[in-house]
Design goal:
Layout (H helix, E strand, L loop, with lengths): L11 E6 L3 H12 L4 E4 L13 E2 L1 H10 L5 H4 L2 E3 L1 E6 L2 E6 L10 E3 L2 H15 L2 E3 L3 E7 L4 E7 L2 E12 L6 H7 L8 E10 L7 E6 L6 E8 L3 E9 L7 H14 L1 H7 L3 E2 L4 E6 L8 E2 L2 E3 L15 H21 L4 H29 L5 H17 L1 H12 L10 H22 L3 H24 L1 H23 L3
Parallel strand pairs: 1-2, 1-11, 2-8, 5-13, 11-19
Antiparallel strand pairs: 3-7, 4-7, 5-6, 9-10, 10-11, 12-15, 12-16, 12-17, 13-14, 14-15, 18-19
Helix pairs in contact: 1-4, 1-8, 2-8, 8-9, 9-14, 10-11, 10-12
């Protein structure tokens, strides 16, 4: 049967909304294979993006293939070879592993520099950018997408075959296609401030755990010769509702934590505390539609355990370019034609994200914080004794290794063994101190009582938490039984 298609004057093949690492990387890949691409970016480069600035080894491999690692800006970036983990007065320092397949250790690259590098690579490949412009609407029809954007006081339209949402956690493309705002249950809140004149070393990132913001972390990432990115990430549903209280939580930690204060030394903040929302992966949210798809943070490709998004931004850009090339050759941008991209995301990331989401879900119950702190203490103790175990833990947080490596029998056995060692050590140390043993027992009983009281105050909320844990456990179990 002969199909008659209307003749349409397309301004481009693909319109990308957002010029961050995901959008610009995709524009680079598409332009390299002669697929005409336009990127609409809300600001003008170089521009900043509030972020932790950590770029994982896997992300760097993708950026290396784009040509970013040959630049002078990249060569000056801090190479991270160690990580410090801190909990109360306990600490451990881990040498980061680097698999032979990955060319670089992690780097700390401020987003004002990183995004500009990827943007320039895309422009060099032939991508067109419309900067200082905001997409305000788009309409998808059977044969085209018509997008309206505003630049200054004027509104203009772009006609394309496909629209790609690369416009972050609060994606306009996502809101229009999904019909809702991001679910707070799948959101993190990040805060960041840059400091100058901090103490070294330049090649070590520090991660701090505290029951105040658990499940969440504080961090110090060294930047340049003596600067640092100091930040905090919290699960949105467990953080204070008032922005001022969140900032106060961050400021109090900076002022009171002795390990962080030692690292900061006489360093001073050079900017106000800035915050940003992070929406992580929800498998219920579609990432493709007829003539539309999402990449990077707009697709929710954030690891809830580490908060890393750059790695998944550049990976999803490459995976999307492969599918778009096929669609372009077939002149078919329907949901069915784009389905290969969703399949790729699910096969590569869904298991990892499901487990990370489950681990974060455990920590959402603040009533049980003493248990989570005890578990972290066991992890740190095991890291001190076992460099291989420590390398896996650090690699999971860094993004080099998938979270499901923590489900391996050997890994779980080591945690159980360490718990036994700690318990045995405790009993031996208290054998000649019966009074202290009684005091500790009393404190344990009091803590248990407090937990039970808190659980009884709002049983409905805790039952909801248990239901969420059960649902997420089922997802993880399904992937585990399927062999991935």
């Amino acid at each position: 049967m002969i199909q008659i298609r209307p003749k349409i004057d397309f301004d481009c093949d693909v319109l990308i909304v957002g010029g961050g690492p995901a959008g610009s990387a995709l524009a680079h890949h598409l332009s390299k294979i002669n697929i005409k691409t336009i990127v609409v970016e809300a600001e003008r480069f170089p521009r900043d993006k509030v972020c932790g600035d950590g770029v994982s080894p896997i992300a760097l491999k993708e950026l290396h293939d784009i040509g970013i690692t040959q630049t002078e800006a990249f060569k000056k970036a801090n190479s991270i070879e160690k990580v410090g983990l801190f909990l109360n007065k306990d600490q451990t320092f881990i040498q980061l592993e680097k698999p032979e397949t990955l060319p670089f250790h992690a780097r700390i690259i401020p987003r004002i520099e990183l995004d500009y590098m990827v943007y320039k690579a895309a422009k060099s490949a032939g991508a067109q950018f419309i900067e200082n412009a905001r997409v305000i609407d788009f309409k998808v029809s059977a044969h085209k997408v018509v997008t309206t954007y505003k630049k200054g006081a004027s509104e203009k339209e772009i006609t394309s075959k496909l629209i790609v949402g690369a416009d972050g956690s609060r994606s306009l493309v996502g809101r229009k296609l999904r019909g809702n705002m991001p679910d707070p249950a799948y959101q993190l809140l990040g805060l960041r401030s840059y400091f100058k004149n901090v103490n070294g070393p330049k090649n070590r990132v520090d991660v701090y755990f505290s029951k105040v913001n658990f499940p969440g972390i504080y961090w110090l990432f060294p930047k340049g010769e003596n600067g640092a990115n100091v930040g905090m990430a919290m699960v949105f549903k467990t953080c204070p509702q008032q922005a001022s209280e969140v900032r106060k939580c961050f400021s109090n930690f900076i002022e009171s934590n002795p390990d962080l204060k030692k690292r900061l030394g006489k360093g001073k903040a050079i900017e106000k505390i800035q915050g940003w929302p992070i929406t992580f992966y929800n498998s219920q949210n579609p990432i493709i539609s007829d003539r539309a798809m999402f990449i990077g943070e707009a697709a929710g490709l954030i690891n809830p355990l580490s908060g890393d998004g750059i790695q998944y931004a550049v990976l999803s850009a490459r995976w999307a370019s492969v599918e778009i090339k096929k669609c372009s050759e077939q002149n078919d941008f329907s949901y069915a034609a784009l389905a290969g991209y969703q399949t790729k995301i699910e096969s590569e990331l869904e298991y990892d994200f499901a487990l990370s989401n489950l681990l974060v879900q455990f920590g959402r119950n603040k009533t049980l914080s003493p248990l989570w702190m005890s578990f972290l203490k066991i992890l740190i103790a095991r890291c001190k004794e076992d460099p291989k175990f420590a390398g896996t833990i650090a690699g999971i947080f860094e993004g080099t290794y998938p979270s499901y490596k923590a489900l391996r029998a050997e890994f779980i056995l080591k945690i159980a063994m360490q718990a036994g060692i700690d318990a045995n050590s405790y009993i031996l140390n208290r054998a000649n101190q019966p009074a202290q043993f009684v005091k500790d027992g009393s404190q344990f009983a009091e803590t248990s009582k407090d937990i039970l009281i808190e659980l009884s105050k709002d049983p409905k909320a805790h039952l909801g938490w248990l239901a969420d844990v059960a649902g997420k456990t089922f997802k993880v179990a399904k992937h585990t039984l399927n062999g991935k």
